[in-house]
Design a protein that fits this description.
6 helices, alpha/beta, about 200 residues
Length: about 200
Amino acid sequence: MRVLIWIAAILAAIAALLFLLRLRLTAEYGEEGPSLTAALGAVPLLKLPKPKGAEKAEGKKRPEKKKKETTEKKDKGGPEPGFKKTLQIIRKLLGKLKRRLCVDELTIRYLSAGDDPAATALIYGAANAAAAALARAVESLFRVKQRDIRAGVSFTESAPRVYARLRLSVSLGVLLWLLAAAAVQQKLAQWKAGSK
């Protein structure tokens, strides 16, 4: 009897730990280009693009991949069978994540600039309207802790600039539960399609 109590306590502790651990994603776009970082709690899992030291450590693997990409025929792609069903499942999964996904930080700064002051001013006005609409849409779909969406104008800069930073977090337990539910739905859809 005590063994069953210990097993139940261990399973409850694992479940609690899964629901306390958060998967954090940070996407950023700035002067250096796009970057993506993923971490589980305080443990970093992924960082793209990789730091320059990591590329040097890989050595010869990098140039070989570039050679393969240049020799292959570039294809625009096309429709894939079953893509619409997969897209529906992803849409349902995102719909279930709707209020569970937490936007820790959403920063978008757009600087309208150009040679023509009138066109720059018009683009600035449109960017302000888009920023307000985007803020309302994001806050209606997700829990947003910190939001900074704004547009600016510069008549001295020659080209517009954009800075964006998005930090998301979701409980690992919720994510695993939703992924398992999506996998079961996919298998059921395949089974129903196979039985017809």
